[in-house]
Design brief:
Length: 130
């Protein structure tokens, strides 16, 4: 297989890990913002965990991309396509809530790299099938 799709998938995985790290560093600020009398105790305890959950979600997406970019398994194309769709959904969701900021830019770059990887892989498979 060509090196470009594997490199783009690996880059996407690394970008997702960076985004997960940056996102997880905001947990303390979320916790601090929720301390006070105006926030019910349930939400003050639950929202930081939900905040961290999105960071783990990004790590869970990065893992198969990094693994696939190294080992080149048979499921590389479907995994790349699926992670690209999930990243696209994440991008639209985060952008609709927060607009442009470094996290949405990173997600946008991941979506672009995964889309390019999927296109290159699909064209490569269709060329070998004919």
């Amino acid at each position: 297989m060509q090196i470009l799709p594997r490199a783009l998938a690996g880059l996407s995985g690394l970008l997702l890990l960076v985004d997960a790290y940056l996102h997880s560093t905001g947990t303390a600020a979320v916790r601090e913002a929720l301390t006070g009398d105006q926030v019910p105790e349930f939400f003050a305890h639950a929202l930081p965990i939900i905040w961290l959950f999105f960071s783990w979600h990004l790590v869970a997406m990065a893992a198969p991309l990094l693994w696939a970019s190294i080992t080149n398994p048979s499921w590389f194309l479907p995994a790349t396509f699926f992670c690209g769709l999930v990243a696209l959904g994440d991008f639209f969701w985060v952008y609709s809530a927060a607009g442009w900021f470094p996290g949405t830019v990173v997600l946008f770059l991941v979506v672009a790299a995964l889309g390019a990887t999927t296109i290159v892989l699909a064209r490569g498979r269709s060329a070998t099938a004919t």
